[in-house]
Structure formats: structure tokens, C-alpha cells
Design goal:
167 residues; mainly beta; five-stranded antiparallel beta sheet
């Protein structure tokens, strides 16, 4: 064991001998929020989508963002995916229905982190889309999708609370 002094990946430039500019999405940025709720129906089938947010493509979703849900699975194992979708065809590649998170178990009421791996929380929204190489600009939609093979056995609410930074 040893005593160590470590610096976060985004803080490194701030504490360097010659300080360099750090994108305000990672330090000193203004936190914004959005919250929305959708009511799903008993009998909604796999690949049904629930549109819950529209954010700037360069937004950085914070790890404190949460998805809340009722027991919409009932007796059937039911999972949700959380993905990124184009607005006005601004993505070079296809929408990514599970780009942010996948396999969120909604067989009982509860909540889950929006971001599957907190290490990805310093990622711009557009970068959650597989194979997207540059920021498309504009806005992107965030939708919840019933995973393949999943159906809802009960009606209930799905709520998305997002905290994000753009500047």
C-alpha cells in the first residue's frame, strides 16, 4: 500500500503547471434539467418507444440523472433500453436505441441510473451513438424502448429526470 495523489481526467488541465482551457461542460458549467413522464399501457409490445427528452447534441448527461418506473412488467420479465435518436435526420448513422443504457429491469417498481457506466458520464450525447464520429449539431431525442421480446403486463408510469451541462 502507498499514499497516492491522483487527479481526475478533466481536472488534469486545470492543475497543470501551464493551465489549459477546460470545456465548461466538465468544469464550471451550468447544470440544466428536464423531467417528463409517460404513461404506458398494458399490452404495449417490444420495440414500443416513449419519447421523453430532446437535448442539444453536445449535452453531457450527469451521473445523477435517474429513470423511474412503475411495475409495468407484472409477471413477465420486462426490460427497457434508453437510446439516442436523430432529429431531422442529423445523425450520419442509425439511431441507437440502447446507446445510453440497456436492460433496465422494470419487473418491479423502482429507479435506475440513466447512464449504465458512470465512467461514460463525461461523454457528449452524440457520442453515445455507435459509429458516430463527429457532433452532428442541433438536437437529439432521448427515448425509452421496450427491449426485444418484452411486453408490458400492466399500465404504469415511466419518468425521466435528466441533469445535463451544455455550457
Amino acid at each position: 500500500m502507498a499514499v497516492v495523489t491522483l487527479v481526475g481526467t478533466k481536472t488534469t488541465d486545470l492543475v497543470a503547471t501551464k493551465q489549459t482551457f477546460v470545456d465548461s461542460r466538465y468544469h464550471y458549467g451550468r447544470v440544466r434539467s428536464t423531467f417528463d413522464v409517460v404513461e404506458c399501457n398494458s399490452g404495449d409490445t417490444a420495440t414500443s418507444t416513449y419519447h421523453l427528452a430532446r437535448l442539444p447534441s453536445n449535452a453531457v448527461i450527469l451521473p445523477s440523472s435517474t429513470i423511474y418506473f412503475d411495475d409495468i412488467g407484472g409477471s413477465t420479465p420486462t426490460t427497457l433500453d434508453l437510446g439516442v435518436y436523430a432529429v431531422d435526420a442529423n445523425l450520419s448513422n442509425a439511431d441507437d436505441p440502447d446507446g445510453i443504457n440497456d436492460g433496465i429491469d422494470v419487473s418491479s417498481a423502482g429507479s435506475a441510473s440513466v447512464i449504465k457506466d458512470f465512467a461514460d458520464s463525461a461523454t457528449a450525447l452524440w457520442d453515445y451513438v455507435a459509429s458516430e464520429l463527429v457532433d452532428p449539431g442541433g438536437f437529439l431525442d432521448i427515448k425509452v424502448e421496450l427491449a426485444d421480446g418484452a411486453d408490458t403486463d400492466a399500465a404504469g408510469s415511466i419518468a425521466l429526470e435528466l441533469f445535463y451541462v451544455v455550457d
